[in-house]
Amino acid sequence: MGRVSGPHMRATLRSVNVLLVEDDDAIAEPLVKGLERQGYAVHRESTGLGGVDAFRSGSPVDIILLDLGLPDIDGYEVCRRVRSESPVPIIILTARGDEIDRVLGLELGADDYMVKPFGFRELIARINAVTRRSQATGAPTEDSTQLAGNVVIDNRTRRVTVEGAEVQLTRKEFDLLSLLASDPGATQTRETILEQVWDAHWYGPTKTLDVHIASLRKKLGDPTIIETVRGVGFRLRSSLESDPNS
């Protein structure tokens, strides 16, 4: 269903399996060829449902390149369904450049957002950055840390609970919270956060950080637990600090 070509799979030194969900042949075909020349294994789907089915098929998927304007369900819905099941990296590729579209994509769990037309070398750089960060954050650091407001983060299982109830976070949201929790009360600069949670050579808009902070505050049920240090960055309220709402 929705499969416009057989799997473009072959052995690769990079061992990076790309799922491309793009309905426009004029964009998809040269993109597939270019990625394969770079050593990636690429599988393409032309519909949103086809992309979801391919992701669920059991074939290895290391990163998803996702168009928004698909002929059946849109890319936002694909992103939502995939993210509810897996932390696999997702890069949105779209002609929609408005801030609201970027914010929505990032809120749904996309790791990056590129507006068409884009340069192929920049795409490769972003793929490398996202997959590198995904591999780096796969290793746990410390078992469990108690945070302010009855929030517990478990780096071994990558689970977060608030007053005993599990909170569903995207991979980036977890990595961001984990970084802030590594030194509660200390201010982490925006530059440090982007470098540690995204990549040292992050190309995307810095607005993505604010989107993820806002989402974390909402999911944790406490808008004051992460404090904005104006002009500098963000800090997680220490367990020793009093709750300003109490």
From TrEMBL:
Residues 142-238 form the OmpR/PhoB-type domain. The keyword DNA-binding applies. GO terms for biological process: regulation of DNA-templated transcription. SMART domains: REC, Trans_reg_C. Keywords: DNA-binding, Phosphoprotein, Two-component regulatory system. The keyword DNA-binding applies. GO terms for molecular function: phosphorelay response regulator activity; transcription cis-regulatory region binding. One of its GO terms (cellular component) is cytosol. Residues 17-131 form the Response regulatory domain. PANTHER family: PHOSPHATE REGULON TRANSCRIPTIONAL REGULATORY PROTEIN PHOB, REGULATOR OF RPOS. This is Unannotated protein. It comes from freshwater metagenome. The lineage of its organism: unclassified sequences, metagenomes, ecological metagenomes.
